[in-house]
Write a structure and sequence with these properties.
Number of strands: 6
Order of helices and strands: EHEHHEHHEHEEH
Distance between the termini: 11 Å
Helix content: 25-40%
Structural class: alpha/beta
Largest sheet: 4 strands, parallel
Strand order of the largest sheet: 3-2-4-5
Bound molecules: iron/sulfur cluster
CATH architecture: 3-Layer(aba) Sandwich
CATH topology: Rossmann fold
């Protein structure tokens, strides 16, 4: 099982600074168990982000969707509609989830996927590029889980 910790709000705010309509995508397995990226955490961070941006005078529209596993194509399909409706994707899954989402929703064929750090990609309406950033870090395999 993957264990992760969530990035702080100021860091996420910086990452999303250019976007006003973002999909917050939770993952319903490992990061739900370690309380860093499941439906509950997506709800909490969405509220905090909306409030922070409102205080900055630049409100943000956030759509929240949590799927069972972001690293499996059959589940990622459920993000197709929401991904289309939003400028960028903030993944609460681990690096494997962010990577899988970036591959599944690469944006226009003519523009390569943009990546920032080990877990990033984004969509800009103007350029037609889609990107997804990771909301969690410090991902590692739990020794307790691997010892089983
Ligand atoms: S994307 Fe990462 S956190 Fe989500 S189920 Fe797969 S391995 Fe676990």
């Amino acid at each position: 099982m993957i264990v992760a910790s969530r990035k702080p709000i100021p860091e996420l705010k910086e990452v999303l600074a250019k976007h006003d309509k973002v999909l917050f995508a939770g993952c319903g397995t490992c990061v739900t168990v370690c309380l860093s990226g499941g439906e509950r955490e997506v709800g909490i961070i969405s509220s905090a982000m909306r409030m922070a941006r409102r205080l900055d005078g630049r409100p943000i529209e956030i759509e929240q969707v949590t799927i069972e596993r972001q690293c499996e194509n059959e589940f990622i399909q459920d993000l197709a509609g929401p991904a289309e409706r939003n400028e960028a994707i903030l993944s609460f899954g681990c690096g494997a989830g962010v990577q899988a989402i970036a591959e599944r929703f690469p944006g226009s064929r003519s523009t390569p996927r943009s990546t920032r750090s080990s877990s990033a990609s984004s969509k800009s309406r103007r350029s037609g590029r889609r990107s997804a950033w990771g909301a969690v870090r410090a991902c590692f395999r739990s020794s307790a889980a691997s010892a089983r």
